[in-house]
């Protein structure tokens, strides 16, 4: 259910926040983290390229967005129909669709945000990372975190409620790493304020601007990400458990960054949400092995350090990826072929459009 936290979590206006304590040593299976200099010349050439058609890009982005939301709506309806009935479904695990409990929580939060006037454009917020009243305030609190202030490179999701976070990243002279929409057209883009024309930071924080001014990178890019900012539909402040909108792209992006050696277990994950998106009924034992927990939650009124003990994903779990998802994302297909070529082994593939079995997690 929606959760209201006690006043002890209220944002401290005077005292600066301290960074989280160091988390466990990264897995030896993950390559060492690496830093690389930016390629300003290539970025400038891209900015000067008059062939970029902003209107066509935005039209295609909106088309794919509508298509994806329709697909998610169908998936949610199918999960609800196959579910084992009502809010007490968790008591009958093993029956129905294992995704049903996640869709119930998402729908409850989306419905609540619309009903209480919290939702902001794009509307409706259903099947999106929902934009909300006070998103800029939550972003400003995030911007005052010591971990953000000390970061040189910040990965931020491309959704509307995190637009101010992207602005603060660029305005603060930091490197912004943002994924290209749904990873269908590419991978990540890197932006820096010095790459941009005068007065273009606000535009660069939009999807069109990121495509226009960003420098696309590939899997061989040597980059170190100091902080990850991730969007959420619902998050449990007691455990750091998080639900996205249901497409799984945040998890895929995290897994690919792990493969690249750009992040490790110590990389802090932050989300910004409305207080009404805080819930207390995400069952940790039902989370999947690739679900990404959050270390810090920023809302318009408070900052919460979750001290999560949920393990972070160690990479890409190929056995969980459906053929359909793999077919949507070119960069994943390229990576799979590369690994198979280098190892001489065929990587597994998940079942067709079925959520993988629950991976039990230790609390």
From TrEMBL:
GO terms for cellular component: cytoplasm. It comes from the Eukaryota. InterPro entries: FTHF_cligase, FTHF_cligase-like_sf, NagB/RpiA_transferase-like. Transmembrane segments: none annotated. This is 5-formyltetrahydrofolate cyclo-ligase-like protein COG0212 isoform X1.
């Amino acid at each position: 259910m929606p959760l209201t936290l006690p006043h002890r979590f209220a944002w401290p206006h005077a005292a600066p926040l301290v960074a989280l304590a160091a988390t466990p040593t990264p897995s030896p299976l993950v390559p060492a983290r690496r830093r690389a200099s930016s390629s300003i010349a290539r970025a400038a050439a891209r900015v000067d390229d008059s062939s970029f058609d902003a209107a066509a890009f935005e039209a295609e982005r909106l088309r794919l967005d509508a298509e994806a939301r329709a697909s998610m709506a169908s998936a949610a309806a199918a999960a609800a129909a196959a579910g084992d009935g009502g809010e007490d479904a968790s008591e009958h695990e093993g029956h129905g669709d294992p995704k049903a409990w996640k869709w119930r929580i998402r729908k409850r939060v989306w419905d609540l945000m619309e009903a209480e006037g919290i939702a902001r454009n794009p509307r409706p917020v259903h099947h999106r990372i929902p934009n909300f009243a006070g998103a800029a305030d939550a972003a400003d609190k995030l911007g005052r975190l010591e971990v953000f202030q000390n970061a040189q490179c910040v990965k931020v999701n491309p959704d509307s409620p995190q637009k101010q976070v992207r602005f603060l990243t660029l305005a603060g002279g930091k490197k912004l790493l943002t994924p290209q929409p749904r990873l269908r057209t590419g991978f990540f883009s890197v932006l820096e304020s010095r790459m941009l024309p005068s007065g273009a930071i606000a535009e660069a924080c939009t999807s069109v601007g990121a495509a226009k001014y960003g420098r696309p990178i590939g899997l061989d890019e040597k980059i170190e990400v100091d902080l990850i900012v991730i969007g959420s539909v619902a998050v449990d402040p007691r455990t750091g458990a998080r639900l996205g909108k249901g497409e799984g792209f945040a998890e895929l992006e995290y897994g690919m960054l792990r493969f690249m050696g750009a992040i490790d277990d110590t990389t802090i994950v932050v989300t910004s949400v409305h207080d009404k998106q805080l819930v207390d009924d995400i069952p940790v034992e039902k989370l999947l092995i690739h679900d990404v927990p959050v270390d810090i939650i920023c809302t318009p009124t408070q900052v919460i350090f979750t001290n999560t003990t949920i393990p972070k994903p160690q990479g890409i779990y190929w056995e969980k990826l459906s053929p359909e998802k793999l077919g949507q994302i070119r960069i994943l297909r390229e990576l799979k072929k590369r690994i198979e070529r280098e190892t001489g082994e065929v990587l597994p593939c998940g079942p067709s459009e079925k959520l993988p079995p629950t991976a039990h997690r230790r609390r």
